[in-house]
Amino acid sequence: MFGGYCECFCWSNQDFYDDDFYLPDPQPFSLPAPLPKWPQGQGFAAGRINLGEIEVAKITKFESVWSCGLLRGKSKGVTIYRPVGIPEGFHCLGYYCQSNDQPLRGYVLVGCDSNARKPEVGHIHDSEVDSPLRKPLNYSLIWSLNSETNGGGGYFWLPNPPEGYKAMGIVVTNNPEEPKVEEVRCVRADLTERCETSDRIISSDSKSSNPFEVWNTRPYRRGMFAKGVSVGTFYCNAYLSSDEVLTDIACLKNLDHSQPAMPNLDQVHALIKHYGPTVFFHPDEDCLPSSVQWFFKNGALLYRDCGQKSEPIDLRGSNLPSGGENDGEFWIDLPVDDAARNDVIAGDLESAELYVHAKPAFGGTFTDIAMWIFCPFNGPATLKIGLMTIPMTKIGQHVGDWEHYTLRISNFTGELWQVFFSEHSGGRWVDASDLEFIEGNRPVVYSSKHGHASFPHPGTYLQGSTKLGIGVRNDVARSEYYVDSSIKYQLVAAEYLGDGVVTEPCWLQYMREWGPTIVYDSRSEIDKILDHLPFFVRFSVENLVDLFPTELYGEEGPTGPKEKYNWVGDEIC
């Protein structure tokens, strides 16, 4: 039930909607199928996670406190939620906010003193200086909207923590009365990490006399070895930017180095079998994936330095140089024989499999399952210029194409939370509520024709200037060409499980290039394109070149999974 409601976001009464305007509540989202009973293990999917001195639980049930619909349909509205159903002994750390144009699909963490839950230790009172959780001293009103419409205003309060403590999030009321200090807890500073803004949820008009923005937050440092834990709360202020480090609030820190909530080996396999996506390739794809072993077996060659000499690569890749860094001295290329070369370019779908790397995320409160696929060859690009589609003959081609997608799974429940789709040099996270599922809880991944970038839905995606309709086409569709990664996969790395639990293949230690460096004569091909363009859509060669992705003009040989930033770090969006 809404505690308060605002019908516009331009902060002037004459801009309000009519009183009969109604904004429906976002509906909760659930995965298509029930979760299975996971194999026995430590603390995975146990509902609570111990971070050292603080134990946390994830709350996904809320009551709405305040909602705002934006002016005349210009943008989405938002709702602020207060967590409910908090377990006995746990405390709220902040409120949750999301847009109204998506299903209710979020969480906030609540916390308690982990020692207080141990009878032999006894309760540690809030008044104690070293307690991990303490009440705020009071609150500061950081923004408000006093609306008489439907009796609802919005008042955003920042908890003022005791010295040596940090606030975790914002509290919102629908009246000007300051919240009670019992509403939330602040966390001792040494148990926190810096956080930053992530996605902007809502923003007022830039010309508003009462400017306001609301952002999701996330740990500033992220990746396999980072300790920061996302609380799920939000931050608001007059003007912020993406990736801005915050000083008023923080995120939690996991000080339990054993990370007991991470899945064990049996649980990792169970997660892959339950959530492993089906990867569909385009109906006209002629550069299909293969296994790495098939690539080696069918004539891949290792070159060194000046490229005068080459040697075959054995099936395991044991004669590849191991470790170090990409110094440019080695690279892999296709067979010299034309027939063998063409066979390798076509790939071998039957042998194809996904290479899996399981790793901690957000301080071990999530598990990232990165699934890598190998294609022996990346085909030529297809350009789009307005209404014209122009296939290239060579531009975009390169040997050895590594692409991936990543499943992000909550260690509180074992629930699939998001999937990262790698799209050439970047990518994007897609919430589970916006995924396409093929069977049970297994998502669909679409691989683009020739480029093999990953997308969540069929269609055409433009890499370049979408405003002008100029760039590289990424066409994706279902076909009879697919790989079921819930069955055809190989777990190649899970460092957190300890030495020797997962044996990494020899080829994974190869840090050099999986293909030779290629430089394209792009200017010559673009000159030919210009000759066929109508006069009114022609650009100068220089302007047209600027609109295309830089990869079109030359390709360094791609490196393998372990040399990529996201092997240890977070995904790059």
From TrEMBL:
Pfam families: Vps62 (PF06101). It comes from the Eukaryota. This is Vacuolar protein sorting-associated protein 62. It comes from Populus tomentosa (Chinese white poplar).
